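Box 3.1 A note on notation
Throughout this textbook, protein chains are presented in two layers. The first layer is the amino acid sequence; the second is a token string describing backbone geometry. Keep the layers aligned when reading.
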Amino acid sequence: MSRISTLSQYNNLTSNLMRKQTQLSHTNNQLATGKRVDTSGDDPVSSISIQNYKQQLTQIGQYKDAITLANNRLGVLETNIAGVEDNLDVTKQKVLGMLNGAMAANDRKAFKDELQSLYDGLLSLANSKDEAGNYIFAGNQMDTKPFIEKDGYMTYQGDSQSRQTQIDSNMNVKTSLPGDQVFMDIPNPYGDFRPNFAGLTEGSKAHVLSADISDFSKAKAIQVSFSDGGTTAGPNGETVKVTNYSLSIDGTEVVKDQPYDPEKGIEYTGSTAGDPTLNLKFAEMQDGDTITLQPAQSFNIFDSIQAAITYADAPTSSPEAQANLQRVIDDLDAGFVHMNQQRSEVGSIMKQVERQQEQHLDFELTLNTAHGGLEDLDYSSAVLDLNQQAMALQASQAAFSQTKNLSLFNYL
């Protein structure tokens, strides 16, 4: 018959009691934290997956913060461009009013003051800052004031880059547009040349419809002069007035007194191989008119409005003044269309950001569900375990209490 010492029994009961106390304490801690897995020792396999989920959730949180920043920047950008659109629309209405050539000097002064105020407002929008104090339209030169007047002309001090924000591991989006793109590089409404109307005759209403060249790198200054070409018989026998034109390129006359075709305009290709083709169209020319064209595929809106302000200093009834004001109106129309395109670009980026945000939210929900399935506690099961463990502990405590008092001397 084997004998079990009192000390051995005592040690076994003590170990069992401590184990049950540890189990009960662990379950209590789970109920307090709401977590089934609190340390890697609780479930080593699940713990690895939980850490991976947490890392992915942290990354998504960072991308969500970046999206908030991107939306804020894009919202400010869109608001400012919308303000520019409104400014150009009001400016156009003022310039249209100046086409009334019978304005008195005090009326012109009033128009000039209003145009100057609109110009200043436009410049303020172009030099506006975001909530962090960065210039919106300076590209990556955020601390540099982008637009400065120099010698009567506007100069751009920023760069041609757009600020970028990373909103996913493989996605960066623009959160700014450079000022030269928005304000300085507006497509020329006439094509490849800008007109000068200093050579119009009294009563002329001549204007340019289009002026294009097949190879802009070879564009040179052009001068077109119009003269009376007499009359000719029309297709139905009617008398049709003929307007002749002469064309000079870079000071050299290449066409002299040829009939101008209102439907086709002027089409000219030089005699040397590789010479570009010119396509020019005009309207309402009269005998003696001369229009000069300088190569330019774009213009900046500031100089156009500044020109209108300058025109207000003198009577606007002359053909040159009227044509120049019409050119400003054409520029403002082109500027408005350009701003609308810039605003549309911002809107497209905002849609892209919104779609990415939705993807992050969907993935975040999936990760949280998977993460919670591994880490979160099943409360009903834990409470049941707690009750069972408490009862088992009480039984062990009772057994321990009885055993520790046992001795052979009790039976003597």
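The helical segments are 6-33, 44-98, 105-126, 179-184, 301-311, 319-375, 379-404. The chain has a mean pLDDT of 86.
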